């Protein structure tokens, strides 16, 4: 039994397509949220996700797409990008986002797992490789599930705390640690491993160039493209530089 684990696609259909092509024999899929915002291929991404069977849960940016007032305070350039994404998204895409499941305990292929998007309520809000055990363990409060899967921080790592495996498969569509790769994970016969796939960045870059509202923000558009190409999707800054030097993706 082969279970594909993906998270944080962020409107990058090229990266998702590369993973699905590489893992065509997967029996089911676990998706940990963040499908389309803030990326240039929202409809293409949704169409790929529609073809998957398994357990797909909602992330914070999926909720943002359904409740745009949540990001109304964002800077004008990000607002322009997000509003374009939502204006472009088909009605069927909104219906898909509404049907994503909530966080909770599920079972796929006989593997019991607690699925979280990965937002920690207390600061810091991200689950990172150096997050203290007691802080990371808050994902599994009141749960003895052996596998705790989460995304949101866009970095691959696994930690075992009191017998529970805390697993982040990394980001499909927005690398942050200086390596432009589509990251994901696999359970094969109940055993998990981290994986990556390479993909052609050209269609993503072309799609960004075609977003008309970003004509008013040329420096922002170039910043997006440069960060994408160099694998620092939200800027070359800490802690991502340090994690890159430590070999994380």
Query: Between the first and last Cα atoms, what is the distance in angstroms?
Result: 26 Å
Helical content band: 25-40%
CATH topology: Purple Acid Phosphatase, chain A, domain 2
Shape: globular
Mean pLDDT: 97
Spans where pLDDT lies below 50 across 5 or more residues: none
**SSE series:** EHEHEHHHEEHEEEEEHHH
Number of helices: 9
Task: Give keywords.
single chain, 249 residues, alpha/beta, Purple Acid Phosphatase, chain A, domain 2, 5-stranded mixed β-sheet
Protein architecture, described:
With 249 residues, this protein is an alpha/beta fold. The chain has helices at residues 13-22, 42-50, 60-66, 76-88, 91-98, 133-136, 202-209, 218-230, 240-245; strands at 2-6, 28-31, 54-56, 104-108, 111-115, 147-149, 156-161, 164-169, 182-188, 191-197. The chain has a single domain, classed as 4-Layer Sandwich (Purple Acid Phosphatase, chain A, domain 2), CATH 3.60.21. A five-stranded mixed beta sheet has the order 3-2-1-9-10. 41% of the residues are buried.
């Amino acid at each position: 039994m082969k279970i594909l684990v993906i998270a944080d696609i962020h409107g990058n259909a090229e990266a998702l397509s590369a993973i699905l092509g590489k893992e065509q024999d997967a029996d089911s899929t676990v998706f940990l949220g963040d499908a389309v915002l803030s990326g240039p291929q929202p409809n293409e991404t949704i169409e790929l996700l529609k073809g998957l069977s398994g357990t797909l849960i909602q992330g914070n940016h999926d909720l943002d797409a359904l409740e745009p007032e949540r990001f109304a305070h964002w800077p004008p350039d990000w607002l322009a990008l997000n509003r374009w994404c939502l204006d472009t998204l088909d009605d069927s895409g909104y219906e898909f986002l509404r049907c994503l499941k909530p966080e909770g305990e599920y079972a796929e292929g006989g593997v019991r797992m607690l699925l979280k998007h990965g937002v920690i309520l207390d600061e810091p809000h991200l689950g990172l490789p150096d997050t203290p055990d007691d802080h990371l363990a808050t994902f599994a409060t009141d749960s003895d599930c052996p596998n705790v899967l989460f995304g949101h921080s866009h970095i691959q790592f696994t930690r075992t705390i009191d017998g529970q495996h805390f697993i982040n498969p990394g980001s499909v569509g927005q690398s942050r640690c200086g390596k432009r790769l589509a990251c994901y994970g696999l359970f094969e016969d109940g055993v998990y491993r981290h994986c990556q796939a390479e993909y052609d960045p050209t269609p993503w870059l072309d799609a960004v160039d075609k977003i008309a509202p970003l004509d008013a923000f040329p420096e922002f558009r170039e910043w997006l493209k440069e960060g994408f190409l160099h694998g620092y999707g939200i800027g070359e800054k800490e802690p991502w530089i340090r994690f890159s030097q430590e070999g994380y993706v």
